[in-house]
Amino acid sequence: MPTKVDGSPARVLARLTRVVESALGDDDLSLSQYRLLAFLDQGDWAASALADRLNVSRPSITGLVDGLVKRGLVERRPSADDRRRVDHVLTAAGRTSLLEADERADERLRKVLADVPNDVADDVLGSLTRLHAALDARLQEKLR
Fold first, then answer.
1. Where do the structural domains in the chain lie, given as residue ranges?
2. What is the CATH number of domain 19-143?
3. In the prediction, which pLDDT does 80 show?
4. Are 46 and 38 a contacting pair, CB within 8 Å?
5. Based on the number of CB atoms within 10 Å of its own CB, is 80 exposed (0-12), middle (13-18) or buried (19 or more)?
């Protein structure tokens, strides 16, 4: 039987995910919608590419996008490269909503870190920023 590890990084991330979800609820965004907006902030994508990159089913992407389109946060546009393809584009309102959600979630994370020494909080936030860059680099490698 595996040994119980209370402070495993995966468990910490799972708990932090809940903190972020709570903050996003203030903006009426689900974590999946937030992930989609953040991904679209990097460029325009077809539904199949979004599903692959976000590791969700194509019907799930359709549902996510539909809700964001209704709210004016995402727009569907014919692809300039392929008339058969439809690209999904972050609108100005979508970018604003994403930035507001980022700020609210970051603030919540800082509140969680308020009970640890400042140098530790700074290390955690810096490490998360570096982890984000590493994940982006890995994604870019997959896209090539």
1. 19-143
2. 1.10.10.10
3. 81
4. no
5. exposed
